[in-house]
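User: Quick sanity check before I run a bigger batch. Here is a single chain. Can you write out its predicted 3D structure?
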Amino acid sequence: MTVQSLRNSGTSSEQTATIRLAAPLQRNTAFQEKLTAAATRIQAASPNSQLPAITAQLSRLELLACAASFLADSEADDDTSWSSIASSIQPLFRPHCQESDGPERPASPPTPAAEADRPITDIIQEAARRQGIEPALVAAVIKTESNFDHKAISPAGAEGLMQLMPETAKDLGVNNTFDAEQNVHGGTKYLKGLLEKYSGDLDKALAAYNWGPGNVDRQGMDNLPTETRNYLARVKGIYTRLTG
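Assistant: Done. Predicted structure follows.
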């Protein structure tokens, strides 16, 4: 599958942006393999999938992340906004993005973070399926919490993709908060527990995820701090875009 075949599959804004990123790399065999795999998932989600739209959306993000890896080696990219978006999630997909044919890059210094051994799309969908919630909601929380940075640490000490506090992570059975798979499964389990606690009330569950269930219970939804109100708006906005 080539850039042209992806172009022929539709003219959505996401596809247009993907084509702009991929066009300078048409001759790169390694990238073509990644383009084929991701574009196939975008074009034809499994008929057995309950959420083909989110599968396609997350596959687009995976393709963008791979594109960023190759574009970093060239001067061809003049679309900095899409490059920035791709770069923000690139670290999670780097194990699945082969390096370009250009000069070898220096090895990155060791970090305590463990990158995903498989695509984040698969991890999100598996965790969401296991807990019975929508992958789009999990993805929206991850985007808001860490911008898909599995190494993220907040000033308060929350860690990883879904920004788990160490004690919460321990209670959830997460041994390494910087491991993408453990963090997403633990964070999704925690989110599911909050949804059950508040009888499916998404606003309360998200507020508790951000502010803490104790604060929500004691002070109520009418007294949310500005940060939490902004958090709710952002998560729900991303969730709506992913499912719209």
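Residues 120-243 form a domain with the Lysozyme fold (CATH 1.10.530.10).

User: Great, the batch can go ahead then.
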